[in-house]
Design brief:
Blueprint (H helix, E strand, L loop, with lengths): L11 H16 L8 H14 L19 H14 L17 H14 L1 H11 L15 H10 L2 H11 L2 H16 L3 H12 L9 H13 L16 H24 L3 H8 L15 H14 L5 H4 L26 H18 L9 H11 L3 H16 L11 H22 L9 H8 L1 H11 L5 H4 L3 H27 L10
Helix pairs in contact: 1-6, 2-3, 5-6, 5-8, 8-9, 9-11, 10-15, 13-22, 15-16, 15-22, 16-17, 17-18, 17-22, 20-22
Length: 501
């Protein structure tokens, strides 16, 4: 849905892209939806029918409210529109309720709130260097970036088929990134603080924000060689940033603190009793570890020492000390911040606790901004995106959606590769033979999982094999992309002398 003023990004083409993807989302309304559809219907009912004191205690349904308070208030606001569509969807005891009006309301609520995402993409386009712009519109970095974000395959199937509200949340994140690129640091900090109280998964990238704002906003000047001028530290700026975090947190958590319910809210937000891995292994380090552990146990390997390597400590959030390059004087610019943000997201995805496969979008979408800047980043983006998007295929397991997901991913992947190859045609090739071979391997993997395995005798005895193969194969590609990005951050030359912030 086109946001006001988007035409300023480059004429009518941006509005056409936004309108086109909105029409596609409307076409996807009748498709399969997951249990997340019932999750959000139940949250509508909870916030509409019960007083705030019962929101985080209500447990009639197994899908209890486990998002931060701002998202609860978002559901509360939606519920006052929902009642004009179908009052019955707001009944807590109507479990698994899904009338045609309920379906239309919830689908259109996702499409409507995507307006924020469209506006955020528009703002991100302003931050892109157009030096590589070709004569043709389709060769311009801003056009390519707009397509990569607005028509992102992963976001389309997760929000508009599977069903979630990631669009406007990623809109908040991209908008905060754009504001930091525009040196509007306070706005960027405010947007990110608000985002954290909508969905706490964005804590994964909080270290990048904290260190960057400390380095580039609280320190107001640099030495001629680009290093920190220590006596330029501004306590007023630090206090102002702290005040933003405090006020947003007070607005979100204050009512529950007053009700003495903060421990209950936190227990819902951070259910650490869940296992290390999700039911469908996210394609990360733990998928590789579990697969290797299983293989070794099958062949009779003594795994006493190997099994002892499994972490037994409580899960923790990403530590900025785990990313020493965040402190590097050579990477203090907005692009350096963006690279570190993506590394935080990928590191948390690879090594985090009970990670969901959908969390890969937290790295894929911001990586789109880097992909139109350098050939090396474009190569990493294509490997990460193609592998990460394919890992989402198991979310859509019904037969009618099979051709839809294959066609949409093929179209997005072919466009991504061809457009970025054209943009960087004067540079080296984007893939070496090994990377090409790996990406082409996704095709036989899909053929086996969807068209061969169902007709084998293994289907009844080992029904998990397609999920296992998908998770492990994609984990290799995502880990490889993370490693390449990490190496590029540590080895790329410094950005040079830096002007006063």
């Amino acid at each position: 849905m086109a946001a006001p003023g988007v035409a300023a990004c480059g004429g009518s083409w941006f509005s056409a892209l936004a309108l086109g993807v909105t029409l596609l989302k409307c076409l996807l309304i009748p498709t399969y939806h997951s249990t997340d559809f019932e999750v959000h219907r139940n949250w509508l009912a909870i916030t509409h029918s019960l007083p705030i004191s019962q929101w985080y205690y209500e447990a009639t349904s197994e899908w209890t409210l486990d998002y931060p308070p701002f998202f609860a208030w978002f559901e509360y606001a939606l519920s006052h529109v929902a009642k004009y569509f179908d009052q019955e969807m707001l009944n807590i005891h109507n479990l698994n309720y899904s009338s045609s009006r309920t379906l239309l309301f919830q689908r259109f609520s996702v499409i409507f709130t995507d307006a924020l995402f469209v506006y955020a993409v528009h703002e991100c386009c302003k931050c892109i260097d157009g030096k590589k712009a070709g004569k043709e519109l389709t060769e311009k970095p801003k056009f390519i970036l707009s397509v990569l974000l607005l028509w992102n395959f992963g976001l389309l199937i997760v929000d508009h088929i599977h069903f979630q509200y990631n669009g406007f949340l990623f809109g908040l994140m991209l908008l905060s990134i754009a504001r930091l690129f525009q040196k509007r640091h306070m706005e960027g900090a405010l947007l990110f603080a608000v985002l954290l109280h909508f969905k706490h998964i964005y804590l994964y990238v909080a270290p990048a924000y904290g260190i960057y704002l400390l380095r580039s906003y609280c320190f107001t000047a640099n030495k001629p060689d680009g290093s920190i001028r220590w006596n330029s530290f501004s306590f007023i700026r630090l206090i102002s940033l702290g005040l933003i975090v405090f006020l947003v947190s007070a607005l979100s958590l204050g009512p529950f603190l007053a009700l003495n319910q903060l421990p209950q809210v936190l227990s819902r937000l951070f259910p650490f009793k869940r296992g290390l891995c999700h039911a469908y292994w996210a394609p990360n380090f733990w998928a590789l570890y579990n697969a290797l552990d299983k293989v070794l146990s099958v062949i009779g390997f003594n795994d006493k020492w190997f099994g002892s390597a499994v972490p037994t400590h409580s899960p923790s959030f990403s530590d900025p000390l785990g990313h020493p390059h965040l402190y590097s004087d050579g990477h203090i610019g907005p692009r350096g911040f963006l690279r570190c943000l993506i590394l935080c997201a990928l590191s948390s995805f690879l090594f985090g606790w009970h990670v969901h496969e959908k969390a890969i979008l937290l790295a894929v979408l911001p990586m789109s901004l880097l992909s139109v800047g350098k050939a090396g980043d474009a190569s990493i983006f294509l490997i990460l995106t193609t592998t990460g998007h394919y890992s989402l295929f198991p979310l859509l397991f019904t037969a009618p959606e099979l051709p839809i997901k294959i066609l949409l991913m093929l179209l997005f992947t072919i466009y991504s590769i061809s457009s970025l190859k054209t943009l960087f045609r004067k540079d080296k090739t984007l893939f070496n033979w090994m990377e090409t071979f790996y990406l082409l391997g996704l095709a036989p993997l899909e053929i086996f999982c969807e068209f061969v395995f169902p007709f084998t005798s293994w289907k009844l005895k080992y029904p998990f094999i397609p999920l296992l193969l998908t998770s492990v194969y994609c984990a290799v590609g995502i880990t490889y992309a993370w490693f390449r990005l990490y190496v590029s951050v540590l080895t790329d030359p410094p950005v040079g002398k830096t002007k006063k912030q």
